[in-house]
Amino acid sequence: MPKVNLTHFETTLLFAFLSSIVLGVVSKKTDRDRLYYGLYCFSYFVVAVFVIAWLMKLGHG
């Protein structure tokens, strides 16, 4: 089995992507609503990652 080396950022984006797919599929009824909600969730995940990263950077000096 090939070994996959992902950075922390890549792993976080992969988690955000997969979580957004699941949230879109289980929470909306039409395909269009699923797509828009999945993109909405993904964008908020990415924004949250950057905000938390900056807070951690400011907290550690």
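Above is the first protein from milestone M3; the second protein from the same milestone is given next.
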Amino acid sequence: MSVEIDHSARVVLVTGSGAGIGREIARWMARAGASVAVHDIRAEKTAETAALIAEEEGTARAFAADLRDDAAIDQLVADVVAWGGGLDIAVNNVGMMAGRPPARFVDMDGAYWRDLVDQNLVLTALCGRAEALAMMEQGGGVIINVSSGETTRPSPMMSSYAAAKAAINHLTWSMAVELGPHNIRVNAIAPGTTLTERVKEVFPPGHYDAIVAATPLRRETLPEELGRLAVYLASDLARCTTGQLILADAGAFLSRTRPPNLGQNAV
């Protein structure tokens, strides 16, 4: 007997899927047969991801939108529904550092905090709202919020990012309770340090290796592993799972100490 995950009759929206973790989630959803709406603020990046999926004979369409505009969020979901005939799965992956460098807590002013909270918590909440309304009309669906392993431990130089992501964990629980009666499951995944393009830009030489060495498994989290996890959580194999934070961090949350000499770029 074999067990396979088949999303071939499902429409998936992955926000922030022009690169990195979002791109791999989109690719793995397509590999499972889903029709994937690829979103990013950068039109060229959405096109790249959609082209990669097409090369693997998957189905995808690129949607470019700046989700910092509330109306753009509702329009994106409406466009995806019009394209695919519905919305079955949504992965809210927009986030990161909003173009801000890591900083000490005492150096983060109001603008810094608002940028981080808006780009992480607020965008996730407003995307989830629009997605949930579409799913309620069709009788159910699955929402996956992307959190962070930084929410499970102190995060020097990243306190605003970690706090905003931790709020997403709580948001996920509340969404799961409110949306459960509408047959909508809501879970969050928390990646460990993942070597994406953005991380490469921030980390000095040697720091990434030091972080990896501090995990119990002595390895990093790969973007494709997060793609596989999202495919599973969206499937009927996980149909009894909602309101959960799933860590995919090589056990980093178990580490009581930080790698030495990471300085201000510790993540």
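Note on the second protein: The two ends are 43 Å apart (CA to CA).
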